[in-house]
Write a structure and sequence with these properties.
Blueprint (H helix, E strand, L loop, with lengths): L6 H13 L10 H10 L3 H12 L3 H5 L10 H10 L3 H15 L4 H4 L11 H23 L15 E5 L16 E5 H8 L3 E3 L5 E3 L1 H4 L5 H10 L14 H14 L3
Antiparallel strand pairs: 1-2, 3-4
Helix pairs in contact: 1-2, 1-3, 1-5, 1-6, 2-3, 6-8
């Protein structure tokens, strides 16, 4: 008889669910293998747990993507607890991964802060960086590691862009529905209100950006983007009220 999954193992499985595209989950996926080894489960077992968690995701249901049809009560409890509180999931799940791996959280999360002494400041910075790393991984995974505007798929050129600004909305800093995957150019333009995305997911490019592009081919490309919709994520669809906030600020700060 298979050993029941613990709450801690289920939280780690939810962490993995957030970090990989659902359609890439398989027993041969390197990320699945990595975390299965950490918790002492087979890759097949962890992959099945990912499928069980997927059945609870409303974004997948809307797209007609179904997880496994059966699951455990523990999955629902963890989902309900953490889905609307991603900040809690981020740090708690990474802490548990470190615990299972018999390592400290800095090692697990590849955080280097050797110059900081032990104490409250160090712990605060560690938690902040762990959470930021988790947010980035979750948002990029949701978009299958591609820019939602250009389609660029080079990870080194991609960033997790906050829709509602980090400084203005601390409650939703780690909410993946407050994130969009963009390449560095569009991320910068978005942050500077040189472009926006409407609540209906239409791309808006400002005249202020176009007027300062000297290369005609690139200007033509930017103009073709106007009115086109972003490539939608597999899960964690951007929340429309966050998009509305940015779009309102865009209209205030730039002319279209």
């Amino acid at each position: 008889m298979n050993k029941p999954w613990s709450r801690e193992e289920t939280i780690i499985a939810f962490n993995v669910y957030c970090k990989i595209p659902f359609n890439c989950s398989s027993k041969t996926n390197p990320t699945i293998i990595k975390y299965a080894n950490i918790i002492g489960r087979s890759p097949s077992a962890l992959n099945m747990k990912i499928g069980n968690i997927g059945r609870l995701d409303p974004d997948l249901k809307i797209k007609g993507i179904s997880g496994l049809t059966h699951g455990a009560q523990m999955e629902e409890e963890v989902w309900n607890e953490f889905y609307r509180n991603p900040e809690s999931l981020a740090f708690e799940s990474e802490r548990l991964i470190a615990q299972f791996a018999n390592k400290n959280i800095e090692e697990i999360s590849s955080i280097r802060i050797d110059d900081l002494p032990q104490g409250v400041e160090r712990e605060t910075i560690i938690k902040q960086r762990v959470n930021q790393s988790f947010f980035r991984a979750t948002v990029m995974s949701a978009y299958n590691f591609r820019c939602c505007i250009s389609g660029v798929g080079n990870p080194e050129l991609l960033e997790a862009c906050h829709i509602s600004e980090w400084s203005q909305d601390p409650v939703n800093r780690l909410n993946p529905k407050n994130g969009i995957c963009m390449n560095t150019f569009f991320h910068k333009a978005y942050d500077k209100y040189l472009m926006s995305i409407t609540p209906d997911f239409d791309i808006i490019i400002s005249d202020r950006l176009l007027d300062n592009v000297m290369e005609q081919h690139f200007k033509d490309y930017l103009m073709t983007l106007r009115g086109h919709k972003i490539t939608m994520p597999e899960k964690f669809t951007p929340q429309k009220d966050f998009l509305e906030i940015h779009y309102h600020q865009f209209k205030t700060n730039a002319w279209i």
